[in-house]
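Following up on my earlier message about N-(iminomethyl)-L-glutamic acid. Here are the inputs again, as you asked, copied directly from the submission form:
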Amino acid sequence: MAGRTQLFIRIGRIVGIGQPGWYGGNRWSFGTVANAYMLVRDGRICRIGTMDTLMQSLLVEADEIIDLGGRWVLPGFCDAHTHLLFPATREEEWLMRLRGYTYQEIARRGGGILASAQRFAESSDEALIEGVLARLDHLVRMGTTAVEIKTGYGLTVDQEIRAVRLLARVREQTRLTVRITVQALHALPVEYRDARQRYIRAVCEELLPAVRDYVDFCDVFCEEGFFTPEESLEVLERAVQLGMRVKVHAHQFGRTGGIEVARAVQAVSVDHLEHLDEEDLVVLRSWRTMPVVLPGSSFFLRKPFSPARRLLDSGLPVALASDWNPGTAPSGNLYFIWHLACAYMGMTPEEAFTGLTVHGAVAMDIEGGALYEGGVATFQVVEPVQSLAVYPYEFGHIPVRQVYIGGERVV
Ligand code: NIG
Ligand code: FE
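Thanks, got it. Here's what our run produced:
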């Protein structure tokens, strides 16, 4: 038998077997196999079967036999929207919001993204990298094996270039798959308060050309109080002209035009979508994109949730992500996101599972999120349950016991 082989035996159930892809209405009819074994060769799955069909020869020839003792196997989660490169938590703003201030009011008083940006500039490279690596460690223990990370707390051209460099270093120091997004517009830096157009020009002419070869995507925050659709479009068109693929933060606080902007540049994903009407659904169906919904920020801000049920019923797919950031979603727990998707957005456990796995992978354009022969052996070993719904039902509980990335045990 050529190559290094690992034989995982006595798997209670393997869930998420099938081809990765874009499934309208999240109708991914993934397979499951109970009482299973899985053969992995050089980090790739080469056979899945039931224990009663396991040939004695495999047991003899495998380099390593791993007895999972009835635990279940799920694909690693693919978190397609995070802002993990931040200098510090902002719990003082959370306390202000509990006293009645809104997210936008806090931003206007110099808190929010601007406060993080100031601390970002004052922080050392080492401290920032350590912070991200610690969060990645936390994520993988919760079953996440691939993650998109946005810059966005640099704000100035120099600091944003630094942020991209730091993320490139992070990528080399982790086993997780990392996609890097330059958040080209996040908040207007204080020093540009009276010079918006000059800032947009600096982003287009200095920042984007400098980072184009080092990032996977370019994103903008198109929202009232942040950037207009015209400004967002100007930046994204420039990004496209430079050969970059784009994403948009759209309709988080209102119907502020971000979906039209996303269409104009054929965004790979359109993220947030808390505020939608019928016309928006029509526009979203007009090109092949992945809506990414972020119930963690709605929960934390106590704001409306994205109407994911309506997206699905109109035939669109939905990916679910954490949005982990210090201002609006200070958690990367995708098991809790799974619960929120079912409890507040009308998704079934299976639809939400699809959103956390294959659709997260599509939103990042990576391999992963599904288990199939020939696919990468990246998966979580979880406590066995009576049915898949138990995972989102037991909110707050993390059932992860082991994690493998490309056949290598990382947890
Ligand atoms: O997705 N686009 C805004 N970014 C975050 C919030 C960032 C912050 O408050 O630090 C979001 O909600
Ligand atoms: Fe975000």
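One observation from looking it over: Residues 83, 112-113, 116, 221, 249, 297, 323, 325-328 surround N-(iminomethyl)-L-glutamic acid (ligand 1) (CB under 6 Å). Hope that helps, and feel free to reply on this thread.
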